[in-house]
Prior knowledge:
Elements: E1 8-13, H1 20-31, E2 34-37, H2 38-48, H3 51-62, H4 68-79, E3 87-91, H5 97-108, E4 116-121, H6 124-132, E5 134-137, E6 143-145, E7 165-166, H7 173-187, H8 190-196, E8 200-204, H9 209-224
Parallel strand pairs: 1-3, 1-4, 2-3, 4-8
Antiparallel strand pairs: 5-6, 5-7
Helix pairs in contact: 1-9, 2-3, 6-7
This protein binds adenosine-5'-diphosphate.
Amino acid sequence: MDTVTTPAVLILLGPPGAGKGTQARMLEERFGLIQLSTGDLLRAAVAAGTPAGLAAKTVMEAGGLVSDEIVLAILQDRMAEPDVTAGVILDGFPRTAGQAAALDALLAASGQKVTAAVSLDVDDEAMIARVAGRFTCAACGEGYHDSFKQPAVSGCCDKCGGVAFKRRADDTAETARARLEAYHAQTAPLIAHYRGMGVLRSVDAMDGIDTVAGALGSIVEDVTA
Ligand SMILES: Nc1ncnc2c1ncn2[C@@H]1O[C@H](COP(=O)(O)OP(=O)(O)O)[C@@H](O)[C@H]1O
């Protein structure tokens, strides 16, 4: 495994379907960084039926943004766990100006700052198509798509042989459009915030998964050297 020398705080910015989760998992494997996905943390809270999960469920199903208060609370809990000292990749956070300011303040309290924010640049219509057909192996999380990537043996995961698959409740074309609108209204402005801080990078995320992973890996090596 390649290792990073300083604890990095990397942010992946991009609309739903841009590949943030896929790429964050690959960076986690390659560099030993920890993927922190607020979407995954919220889905776990919904599944567990916690008060935060109950409050988030309806908003998530409609494709809106969960309140900063809830998201910050679950993220802070996760960041307080010991494994994150190796460095983190934030996937799906921050998503609003308020969350970005809260993250800056949280890091400043321990003398840190965002190492790099990488914008995954993609085409909106392609994202609707990507999101609307995607599904994953319930056992190992390997990603598939109705049109672009079916398991080689129908009904059987290529990676682990699992036979159960799942789709996210919010991965419909209609909800994907609402999520894309929320991204442009509330999250895309953060690109200027990180450009102003001098930490913005961008990659063309319309390329294949491995090409994008290569570009991201080079950025991680560069900013953590
Ligand atoms: N940082 C966040 N702030 C507010 N809501 C969030 C945040 N992260 C995730 N969510 C909620 O969870 C949903 C799914 O998020 P995520 O798994 O990151 O998927 P995607 O990036 O594909 O939309 C979002 O549509 C939103 O409702």
